[in-house]
Design goal:
two-stranded antiparallel ribbon; alpha+beta; two-stranded antiparallel sheet; 8 strands
Amino acid sequence: MYKVITVEPEKCTGCRICEAACSLHHTGECNPSKSRIHILKWEPLGLDFPMLCLQCDDMPCAVACPVEAISRDPHTGATIVDSSLCIGCRVCNIACPVGGASFDPSEGVAVICDLCSGEPLCAMLCPTGAISYTTPAKAVLSKKRLAIERLSEILKHW
């Protein structure tokens, strides 16, 4: 069984260590704008919310991709983008229900959390445990969806 990233936004302090580690691991530079995880900061509410691919079972990003550049890694279960196939159309960004797909303008391709090949640094380095990498259970998956729904409601009324 695959492991999944779990986010507990109430534990996030907005330190952005996850963004720095992700960008350093994937691009060799400490540049949060090139990270595959982004901290949504909602200053008026004091909210810091880690946003990344939830590795959806139905993979709406892959279904929407016109060139089939997005697939699931058979070993980790991670959503992966084949940058040699990606045409940079950003349809996956639009299709993603949680904003987990982003675009790297310097490379001209989509970027999605690939779980660091099964050892996600964001989860390993998160000092508060707001991001963890665990075996999925119904309660965990429900908690992820609840967190996204809560954020969605906050943003709708803001």
